[in-house]
Amino acid sequence: MNADPPTHRACPYCNELISLEAKVCPRCRQWLTWRSLRNPLAQSLFVVLPLMLGCGALLVLAANRFQRVFLPRPFYSEVPGALAVRESWLNWVETTNGPRIYVTGILTNRSDLRWRDIEFECRFADSSGRMVDAAHGRTFMTVPARDDAAFRVAVTPGRPSSADYHSHEVRVTTARSSHSAF
Question: Which CATH architecture has domain 76-177?
Answer without folding.
Answer: Sandwich (2.60)
